Amino acid sequence: MKTIGVIGAGQLGQMLGLAAAEVDMECVFLDPADNPPASSAGRVIQAAFDDAAELAALADCCDVITYEFENVPVDAVRAIEAVCPVYPPPSALAYAQDRLSEKRLFESLQIPVAPYRRINSAKDLQQASEDLGLPLVVKTRRLGYDGKGQAILRNPGDAAEVVAILGGQNLIAEQFVEFDYEVSIIGARSTTTETIAYDLSRNEHRDGILRMSQASDENPQLGDLAKDYLSRILSRLDYVGVLALELFVDGEQLLANEFAPRVHNSGHWSIEGARTSQFENHLRAISGMPLGDASTLGFPGMVNIIGMMPEDRRLICAENAFLHDYGKTPRPGRKLGHATIVASSATELQLGLSRLRDLLPD
Asked: Global pTM?
């Protein structure tokens, strides 16, 4: 039995641990939290993410190390590479942690992005507003997620305030894109360079948090283009594991937003809605096993449960949905679980997702 070390023990780690049990593997997690979600799926070493001694202990007891979120300290991960293989490679982690480096990576691969500028002062932001026009989406280069670490500049007179709110430097400003909708493409590349990709996910966000995803093959040309962009990134980074690329659809064009070097919320539908889930394929990829079939089953979609779990969970089951409870303490804006539907038609999926959303607190 192979042992997989996972840095982080949140809900993504939990789902990796559950998937590991299906392929005769086990996961050991490292996380500073007292009772993280993944504790239900494997042993947790309680330690800080940059605790050198405990990371070394994790590496000593595992066949391969991975991580479930992209804010893992890169230097800490690199320090254990000599002891135990780490996938995805720390170089991919470094790109994903800096939005400026990430944009430059996309450009080097001829993957379109919204026009942007590097920002370190209010003067820089004012110049960006003249160059790119308003509104601008201003983001911290590091550590932002689920809508955190960003603001919209609509008035050039507010430049100093926006820069101050976001920390004063190490920012990036992007031209606001009136896109049609958001999508993501999720794929995996193994240690043997075998590669698979899932169907495009069509995503809906509100307040910066993903609310709903559904597998979509309604526009095969966009799907093929997204898979091409994904393939370029996987190859350039000599990537191993699952990667998710988030994109904006603007007519027949795709603009890259960001990538996540890990399993991804917009692919949760794959647990019930694909022949092999993204979690199992991540484990297969990093351990050198053949990748599983990523084809879609029926018409799957997923709704996130935010802030509070439904009072009567039987109502979810009555909708023929699969309920996943992460075991987290409720609080506003927190992802507590998700519910998946696998329908027999696109119309049935839309009706099912609509009914699900009506049942969930929001």
From this structure: 0.96
